Amino acid sequence: MNEATSPVSSSQRLPLTVTILTRNECHNIAECIASVQSIASQIVVVDNASTDGTTDIARAAGAEVHVTPDWPGFGPQKNRALAHATQPWVLSLDADERVTPELARDIAAAIARSDRAGYRMPRLSQFLGRWVRHCGWYPDYVLRLFRRDSGRFSDNLVHERVIVDGEIGTLSHHLLHYSYTEARQVEDKVQRYARAGAKEMALRGKRVSPLKPWINGGWAFVRTYLLRRGFLDGATGAAIARMNARSAFLKYALLRRNDA
After folding, report:
1. pLDDT for position 113
2. What whole-number distance in Å separates Cα of residue 254 and Cα of residue 123?
3. Boundary (domain end) residue, out of 177, 196, 219
4. N vs C: which end of the chain shows fewer Cβ within 10 Å?
5. Is residue 1's pLDDT more than 60?
6. What is the pLDDT of residue 5?
């Protein structure tokens, strides 16, 4: 799969702002920006206190960088990035995602048509270097392209979504997602998402029984490995099922610990 920069020339940049959240993404941010540099009229990076040179790399690559010392959660932080957008259309990316030339052409055509308020696109993800076709990970349609005056992000601390006022279309080509490139990232994300999920449930006043962490952890494994056919991805599918089980278990265990 080709990750080269989009074939749209610099004189034909789209009325598009690309927004990217970062925290210690020095290994990702340059390639992410490069994948959209020739189609975006504005690239906005909102960084949360990186210490690895991410902001310097982003600025050198031509992005407009804003640093926030606090972390309000994914939804609020993405709305902060959205507030800096100046173009009529917005494409929201994570630092470990890449826009292929084929997807760039889809985006250009969608903006030219302007017949929808937003567009979702299929996302193809890697897990420790392997593309994942099952486990509920594919095609994993994500709504990322939308009119700035018609869309915003939900306030969820984790698993935020774009809320669009208007019709949604679907693009054909993949957004590539280079997630979990190292084993330590798996555990780091499990911990972060579990803590955020527990906090969000606590804010809603949710309480759980002693068995809830075990029930939800077991169900997460069964759903991923069997119902979503993770077994077809072999050892990778089993590893993802274990990760999902641990994340679900930990989220409810942390909530219960806070209740105690």
Report:
1. 94
2. 30
3. 177
4. C
5. no
6. 36
Write the single-letter amino acid at 143. L
Q: Which of 132, 147, 177 is the last residue of a domain?
A: 177
pLDDT digits (tens, 9 = 90+) for 37-47: 999 999 999 99
pLDDT of residue 259: 55
The verdict on 109 and 233 lying in the same domain is no
CA–CA dist 259, 42 (Å, integer): 45
Q: What is the pLDDT of residues 11-38, one digit of tens each?
A: 579 999 999 999 999 999 999 999 999 9
Three-state SS for the chain is CCCCCCCCCHHHCEEEEEEEEECCCCCCHHHHHHCCCCCEEEEEEEECCCCCCHHHHHHHCCCEEEECCCCCCHHHHHHHHHHCCCCCEEEEEECCEEECHHHHHHHHHHHHHCCCCEEEECEEEEECCEEECCCCCCCCCEEEEEECCCEEECCCCCCCCEEECCCEEECCCCEEECCCCCHHHHHHHHHHHHHHHHHHHHHCCCCCCCCHHHHHHHHHHHHHHHHCCHHHHHHHHHHHHHHHHHHHHHHHHHHHHHHC
Dihedral sign (CA 103, 104, 107, 108): negative
